[in-house]
Amino acid sequence: MAMWVFGYGSLIWKTGFHYDDRLVGFIKGYRRVFYQGSTDHRGTPDFPGRTVTLEPAEGEVCWGVAYKIIRKEDQEEALTYLEVREKQYDQKAHVDIFSDRAATVPAVSGVLIYIASADQKLNRNYLGPASLQEIANQIVRAEGPSGPNRDYLFQLEKALTLLEKHMLSMDWDCLGSVFWLSWNERDWMDFQGLKKHSCIRAHCSLFYMLSLDRQTICIDSWMLFGRTSNVSRNILYMMILF
Fold it and tell me: What do the Gene Ontology cellular component annotations say (predicted)?
């Protein structure tokens, strides 16, 4: 019997185990949050980084990638690897994966996910909520054995951007009290001379990812600014004014 594993963080771009197939999809009733402290990968015990975990959220979804592993030997190797890699994530769950927003039947059931819970008795590295600015500041400063925390953030942003084509069928709501910022990767680095202002880019990246999961951004620049010659590179970002 095949085993499936769902990745919603670094597993999207860095799997680390053999798999036979992959499925882009989402789980229901959860949202992705930067509430887990990382002292072994993207931070240290003295200054933990922040990585994503899941928290229950009625009516919300979290996009990611599910990996199918067929051979028993590969399953055992993958689990051994994941138990080490995800050792700071104290819960395992099995969920349904959907690949179509309109579907009532899951594409795959019984998919394994790792979750870092909010129970600090079981999860001593849980950091919990903070303002977007505080989270961005912490991510920019933290660094661990796996590298700078900001690289984790930007890699995740890039990975989710590559998944966007699978989200085009979703209905996006445009919420008020936001600042619309249209940019491609090169334009952002030169935006208002902020080429090295990692904290502002981190802030924008964080809000972009939260917006993807919470369905609060329009999908391309055509919807506000008219059709362009390079719509695919003009991703719309919404950023809370700060």
Answer: cytoplasm
What is the rounded CA–CA span in Å between residue 47 and residue 39?
Answer: 8
Residue 49 has pLDDT above 90, yes or no: yes
Task: Read off the amino acid at residue 7.
Answer: G
C-alpha span between 163 and 141 (Å, rounded): 28
Q: What is the mean pLDDT of residues 76-81?
A: 98
The predicted model scores a pTM of: 0.76
Question: H or E element: which one contains 136?
Answer: helix 132-141
Residue positions annotated with a catalytic role:
86
38-75 in b/e form (b: 16+ CB < 10 A) is bbbbbbeeeebbbbbbbbebeebbbbbbbbebeeeeeb
The CA–CA distances, whole Å, from 65 to 13, 24, 47, 203 equal 9, 4, 30, 24
Instruction: Confirm if 89 and 80 have CB atoms less than 8 A apart.
Output: no
Q: With the C-alpha atoms ordered 27, 58, 89, 158, is the resulting torsion angle positive or negative? A: positive
